[in-house]
Design a protein that fits this description.
heterodimer, A: alpha/beta, 2 domains, 11-stranded mixed sheet, 10-stranded mixed sheet, 10 helices, 38% strand, globular, B: alpha/beta, 4-stranded antiparallel sheet, 40% helix, binds adenosine-5'-triphosphate, binds magnesium ion
Chain lengths: 440, 261
């Protein structure tokens, strides 16, 4: 009952959104309509869906979200910068409540042939570059949130790194949200294309402000052509009532290397889907993930690594630290297709429980159709080492500090793998202080 | 024990009993230590030496079932491990714990500042700390590169023990318990570690040195030697006792104990 009412709300929001379609190309209008039709048919997932067994989206379903109308309250740059770990010198494209904010954005430090634009602007001048990527992305037929995002596709980051171009400075894609008198929803659509032999570092940063609920429902597509090297970061620092559903799909061609670091620091209900398709021989994919939960937070990471071609390598390490009555879900699927001989896939999920009332559901899923492959997976759920705690306390650290230091230590190797030094340093600081805070 | 002596004891252990895993390991220990003294504790494997060291430093997995411990006149057993450390107790572990992800410097600075704060001293900043630690490292001839590595992780046995003594030198305790700090060391390392410990001998600091070997006591000459056997101190004496034990082993003591019972 409730669910269908909520569906109606999104359908009527789409009706209103549709009135502003005039400027959009035909194919996009058709795509959006296909998206809303699929959403209508699929409805919101429930815990009866295998892929959503442990994640109840009821809080999203029962909230009346509206798209933001215009810029609204202006965010102070200092607040935006400090919360998203950036500063004014960084190359960044900023969206507030899903709407592009030119006054906060600056990409002057990039080579001139690298494109970093608002997707909606790129679409109006599009010479056929974007269309095939959006049209051929058919996940909306199975996934309700992707369908919803497809229906509302308008703004988001479009990044194009041309053939052979090496971008050394990180590119930040910042998505800030805050309830603007009513619960705001946004459906950012990002498209990142790294052409053959190019190289880039991209940081998606999600930050939330205020006490009101909001929904960020983002879909990102990353395309790595032959030999591209992509270092991808996603940092989620959503507000206490922030709901975030994100679907990242990456396709790697031959010898492409894609490394993703996903860090979830805060938010109320978070669901991250990553689909990595190793679509060329010798492609490499590294998925690193870190999630910190306390209070009643819920974070669900679903990853799927699809070995479609031979001799590709994937390595996945996700680590979680949970306190309070929080709940984390990790579902890591590795699919090795029939012809993907000599695939090498490793997956590890480690969880540290700081409270007896926190819950982790972790599940590896291997589906292997080739015979000459190396595949391994493992998961652990543990508590802090009492010997280590005592050692630290015997030197004068109080119990809370000893615990926070060991929690930090648990997470630190993942932070250490990040290649952007300033981001690494800020995360380090954040972790040390936040563990201390969560004790007091 | 006369009241004069009691008055100036730094540590007084009275009829201490303790259990672990349902088994009574310490079965009535009495020991009194004054500032400036070095007491060696020897005894066969499993006799309860490390248990005593851990009970002194407040390890919660040991259950104290009887007796009391006074440290500078205060009830030690009512204090948490960190309170004991801040009040000047230090345990050099027989098996120092490896802590991946925490650098030795970071850890030691946090520990030192916790202790200093408790003692009403200014916390040291990074520069001040670095110069202190550099100076203290000379004492144990430790490589500076170890400081940036995760605490004890992948350290050799000797490096771990040196690191324990370095920590002691930095934290400046009043009462140090060294649990087999000499085990697993080669000849040079033994000399260096023992030299470091000796340099830290002061008239206002007491030490309990747990060891199996006379050779350590050649370097760190104790004022008293106690033999712990089956959870009790069954014999105490001067430094000559160690020589006797080295030659004769523990059987004669076991026999003596058996004869009394
Ligand atoms: N967790 C435990 N559960 C049960 N028994 C234990 C536990 N820990 C120690 N013990 C027992 O307590 C006894 C005393 O151990 P302790 O480590 O104090 O001996 P020790 O004198 O230090 O020996 P060593 O010379 O080998 O270091 C041993 O018999 C040991 O097996
Ligand atoms: Mg021992």
């Amino acid at each position: 009952m409730k669910s269908s009412q909520s569906k109606e709300r999104f359908l009527s929001a789409f009706e209103r959104f549709q009135k502003g379609f005039a400027a959009s190309p035909d194919w996009l209008r058709d795509l959006r309509r296909a998206g809303i039709a699929c959403f209508d048919e699929l409805g919101f997932p429930t815990t009866r869906d295998e892929e959503w067994r442990f994640t109840n989206v009821e809080p999203i379903v029962s909230t009346s979200f509206e798209s933001a109308n215009g810029a609204g309250k202006i965010l102070r740059p200092e607040d935006l910068y400090s919360r998203s770990f950036i500063d004014s010198a960084y190359n960044r494209i900023v969206f507030v409540n899903g709407i592009f904010c030119p006054e906060h954005s600056s990409v002057r430090g990039l080579p001139s042939n690298v494109r970093v634009e608002n997707l909606s602007a790129a679409l109006t001048t599009d010479d056929g570059v974007i269309e095939p990527y959006l049209s051929r992305d058919t996940r909306y037929r199975q996934e309700a949130f992707v369908a919803l995002n497809t229906a509302f596709t308008e703004e988001g980051a479009f990044v194009l790194v041309p053939r052979g171009v090496v971008v050394t400075e990180p590119i930040y894609l910042v998505f800030a949200s805050y309830g603007n008198g009513f619960p705001v929803m946004s459906h950012p659509r990002n498209l990142v294309i790294c052409e053959a032999g190019s190289q880039a570092r991209i940081v998606e940063s999600y930050v939330g402000f205020g006490e009101q609920p909001y929904l960020t429902n983002v879909v990102t597509k990353v395309v790595g052509e032959e030999g591209a090297i992509i270092d991808y970061y996603r940092v989620q620092r959503e507000a206490s009532k922030g709901y975030h559903v994100g679907a990242l799909s990456a396709r790697m061609s031959r010898n492409c290397s894609f490394t993703a670091h996903s860090v979830t620091l805060s938010g109320s209900l978070i669901r991250n889907d990553i689909h990595a398709l190793l679509d060329g021989e010798g492609a490499t994919c590294v998925l690193n993930g870190l999630y910190l939960l306390d209070g009643k937070q819920h974070v669900d990471n679903h990853t799927e690594i699809d070995h479609a071609k031979p001799r590709a390598t994937s390595q996945e390490l996700y680590k979680g630290i949970l306190s309070g009555t929080s709940h984390a879900v990790f579902n890591g699927k590795i699919l090795v297709q029939k012809d993907a001989q000599k695939s090498d896939a490793r997956q590890t999920n480690k969880n540290l429980l700081l409270s007896e009332n926190a819950v982790v559901n972790t599940k590896p899923q291997l589906e292997i159709h080739a015979d000459d492959v190396k595949c391994s997976h493992g998961s652990t759920i543990g508590q802090l080492d009492t010997d280590a705690l005592f050692y630290l306390r015997s030197r004068g650290l109080d119990a809370a500090d000893a615990q926070s230091l060991l929690s930090y230590a648990f997470a630190s190797d993942l932070v250490g793998r990040m290649r952007i030094a300033p981001l690494r340093a800020r995360l380090d600081d954040y972790l040390l202080t936040s563990f201390r805070r969560s004790q007091s | 024990m006369d009241s004069f002596r009691e008055g100036i004891s730094m540590l007084q252990i009275k009829n201490l009993r303790a259990k672990i895993g349902g088994q009574e390991i310490l079965r009535g220990i009495d020991l009194s230590i004054r500032a400036g003294e070095v007491h060696a504790i020897m005894g066969p494997n499993g006799s309860g030496k490390s248990t005593l060291a851990h009970v002194l430093s407040g390890r919660e997995s040991y259950e104290v079932t009887g007796g009391e411990i006074l440290y500078e006149g205060k009830n030690l057993l009512a204090m948490t491990p960190e309170e004991r450390a801040r009040e000047g107790m230090f345990l050099a572990f027989q098996y120092p714990v490896e802590i991946p992800g925490v650098s030795t410097t970071y850890f030691l600075k946090a520990a030192l500042n916790a202790v200093r704060k408790h003692r009403g001293l200014e916390e040291l900043d990074a520069m001040e700390f670095l110069s202190l630690i550099k100076e203290r490292m000379k004492l144990v001839e430790m490589e500076q590169s170890l400081l940036n590595r995760p605490l004890n992780e992948g350290f050799s046995g000797g490096e771990k023990k040196r690191n324990e003594i370095l920590q002691m030198a930095v934290l400046n305790p009043k009462l140090a318990v060294l649990d087999e700090t000499d085990s697993g060391l080669d000849i040079d390392a033994l000399r260096i570690v023992a030299g470091g410990v000796n340099a830290l001998r002061q008239k206002d600091r007491a030490m309990i040195v747990i060891t199996h070997y006379q050779r350590l006591l050649n370097y760190i000459v104790p004022d008293f030697i106690h033999v712990l056997y089956d959870g009790r101190i069954v014999k105490s004496g001067s430094k000559e006792l160690a020589l006797e034990l080295e030659v004769k082993g523990y059987d004669w003591i076991k026999d003596e104990v058996a004869a009394v019972q």
